[in-house]
Amino acid sequence: xxxxxxxxxxxxxxxxxxxxxxxxxxxxxxxxxxxxxxxxxxxxxxxxxxxxxxxxxxxxxxxxxxxxxxxxxxxxxxxxxxxxxxxxxxxxxxxxxxxxxxxxxxxxxxxxxxxxxxxxxxxxxxxxxxxxxxxxxxxxxxxxxxxxxxxxxxxxxxxxxxxxxxxxxxxxxxxxxxxxxxxxxxxxxxxxxxxxxxxxxxxxxxxxxxxxxxxxxxxxxxxxxxxxxxxxxxxxxxxxxxxxxxxxxxxxx
Length: 253
Hints:
Elements: H1 2-7, H2 19-40, H3 45-88, H4 93-108, H5 113-126, H6 131-142, H7 145-160, H8 164-188, H9 190-213, H10 215-218, H11 225-249
Helix pairs in contact: 2-3, 3-4, 3-8, 4-5, 5-6, 6-7, 7-8, 9-11
């Protein structure tokens, strides 16, 4: 129940779905149809399929948001370093943000999430909106912990009138170090993640191989209630193992 509650929790981050994501969704829907056929070989799977598709689409949406937050978090690190450098060069906070936006456009391109967000922030500066509010809204749109941390530090530095350049530089260094650690962990487990993806498909490939080469061997598992129970248990264990392996690979820093 906790998993379903988390899965259907309203999204706080709104992102656009690309054409590639739509194609992936369609391919995965067809894959679910194949999986259910391999496990049950019955037209009754058409009643189960919509439930599986809805659950997968919700899970897929959460994964897209997680990847988006990871990407914009990494890009924010570079934007923060550029902002810190501009402040050290003598720019005001507003102009430093503009310089950071220009540099990120060169590094990542106009379509990168951080460039779109910085573009919104620069437009807000042009409208005379205070920088503290601009960063608060940026943090609210992205829901990234590091961005929220920097926003809090920036607001305190603005209010107390402390050494803005040094405070932002120290915060930028801390956030950059944390993100670098995340990236190092991601690189270290990348081979294991590939193995996990391969092993996730192995049960399906084995069943498909037996289906194509020795279909009669699996006949006792289809068309009777005992077979349905056995295959349902196998499918449940398979799904549990898949999500457990994904959870193990999801290391938080």
